[in-house]
Amino acid sequence: MDYYGSMRHDYIQKEMYPTEHRQDYFPPKPLTGSSVKIVPKEPCVPRFVSKIDGKAVEEGDRVYFEGILDAQPHPVFSWFFNDEPVVPGQPGWEDAEIHDTRKMSTLIIPYAREYHMGKYTLVSENPLGHAVSNAELIVRKKQFPPVFWQRLYNYEADSGSRLVAEVEVGGWPVPTVTWFKDDEVLTTKTHTENYNGFPNKYVPDGRIEVIRLDQIRHCIIFHRIGEGDSGVYSCQAVNPLGEAVCEAEFQIVPGEGGEGGEGGLYIPEKWKTGNRLDWAKEDQRIKPFVGVVDPGLSDEERAAMLTRFAKPLSRAIEYLASLPDYHPKPFETLPQVPFKADPSHVMKGQKKW
Fold it and tell me: Helix, strand, or coil here: 246?
């Protein structure tokens, strides 16, 4: 430790732990006949200082209810479930525990099950009266099969209008939802494909969309419904624990927004305005890199390149650039090797074949 560090350490030690003797302070003794007296609590009706709280837990969680009271004399506690007494050790309450003290009672359920869901009541009673506290327990099942909270219902709409059909389905694990029309899977079609399997960019988006809004809500949207869309639609939800199906009938009648005299075929607005692409327009369309001539570099551009690099090419690069283009010849046209086997050329020690 350096000199200034040691000085600082000594100063702190002297301030915190002085060496001179200090006289401890002793408070004066209380005077005789003080007004402070300890008297027993006056009798009173039980009153909840902390009521039992409602809970929402997963199946298998540990649950406890606790109530704290102010009462004199000490109260007697009783627990009830759906207005029925809770007795540890009885059927349904084999693992339940109840712990009472003079002013507090606790109910413990080590493993919450579905049948434990309901209303719990704590009653505190003494000779002067009683107090009651209620709470609800909700036990969510960790896994349950699909169930429709909002189902499909029958629709009757005019042709050419927009229709949205929505369902709400629950389940855990989250179910997989599939839409059907007359037992055929219904999906969103945003394009068609040509013979190579590539999407055809000239066909507009489909008028039917199957959308998943969140884990619960699913819907099917008809941007422009037609008479050909009439039929029975169904929605199927499947998870490992089971499946659920709801169905409805869609009836589409001709209306002011009908589909025109195209034999009931849906014609997009883009096609109605004449923006179609036929083979004649396809031939007239400018093709990329067709009829394009490379103009090459002008003298000014070459001079600009030389000034930019400001370094001539090496002799090796100039030599390689001056070589003619190499065009490999087929193997069949290559000349044969002028070699003929001669037995006299066999080395000593080798056998003649």
Answer: strand
Beta-carbon neighbour count of residue 245 at 10 Å? 15
Structural class in CATH, domain 144-255: mainly beta
d(CA 264, CA 229): 10
**Does the predicted model carry a pTM greater than 0.70?**
no
Asked if residues 134 and 119 have their Cβ atoms less than 8 Å apart, the reply is yes
Q: Give dist(CA 141, CA 117) in Å, integer.
A: 11
Long-range contact list for 299-307, CB < 8 A, 24+ apart? none
Instruction: Count Cβ atoms below 10 Å from residue 140 Cβ, excluding itself.
Output: 14
Task: Let me know: does 241 contact 171? Beta carbons within 8 Å.
Answer: yes
Answer for the pair 218, 212: CB distance below 8 angstroms, yes or no: yes
Residue 66: Cβ within 10 Å count: 15
- Contact between 6 and 33 (Cβ < 8 Å): no
**pLDDT tens, 138-181?**
888 777 888 898 888 888 888 888 889 999 998 878 899 999 98
**How far is Cα 183 from Cα 245, in angstroms, rounded to an integer?**
12
> Which of 189, 145, 148, 143 lies closest to 165, judged by CA?
148
User: Whole-angstrom Cα distance, residue 72 to residue 127?
Assistant: 9
The residue whose two tokens read 């002013």 is 103
Question: In degrees to the nearest 10, what's the CA dihedral of 161, 269, 190, 199?
Answer: 160
Residue spans in the chain of domains classed CATH 2.60.40.10: 44-140, 144-255
Q: What is the pLDDT of residues 54-92, one digit of tens each?
A: 888 888 889 999 999 999 888 999 999 998 999 998 888
For the domain covering 44-140, report its CATH number.
2.60.40.10
Sign of CA dihedral 302, 306, 309, 311: positive
C-alpha distances (whole Å) from 85 to each of 82, 92, 119, 152, 242 are 8, 12, 12, 44, 37
